[in-house]
Amino acid sequence: MKKFGMIFLAITLMLTGCGKDNKKESNTIIIENTSNKLSQEQANKYAKSIQTIIVETYIGINSIENFKVIFEDEKDKIDKINVTVESDWTVIRKPEENPVILGMKEEIKALKNEKEKQLAEEIMEGFLKEFEAEYQKTQRIKEKLVLEKKASEKEEYEIFYPEIIDGKSTLYPMKEYYDKNFKEDVEQRKELGHNTLLERLSLENVN
Question: pTM of the entire structure?
């Protein structure tokens, strides 16, 4: 008989970081385990690990709550389990604290031409309005992951992120992939702010 488990885990996470909106939050995970390969105890463990990776990746930027994690067997793949993660994402970082805006502010301070500086401030205001439109807005995000059995450990699985390019899926360890591709590089984003502002000014051809 196919097993089905659903439990509610009250998990308290202490979010630490530079954002002023970070605080102690109590989060609940809904876990649906329809896999014949995964025990409910294992499902609980992997769901908590997934939640931790996602929350820590976006700490200070997004508040991520109301997780639902679904485990399902992949057809004809005895060593893999499909994972669907749903959660509510709310932008909590103030627009003026975005590294892109901070980079633009630095560039504006360095400008000597007053006409150019005025135009640069107008350009920056346009970007601020775009960020303000997203501030404190919540959306439901769905993510697909994969559990793959470890060759060395019979009952243990590793969490992978499936990157799909041209219809071909390549699995990468979730934590490594999130750190490399999703965790914000503040200095890189500030540099983007610098370069974007200079490019826009160049297009305006200010004299």
Answer: 0.81
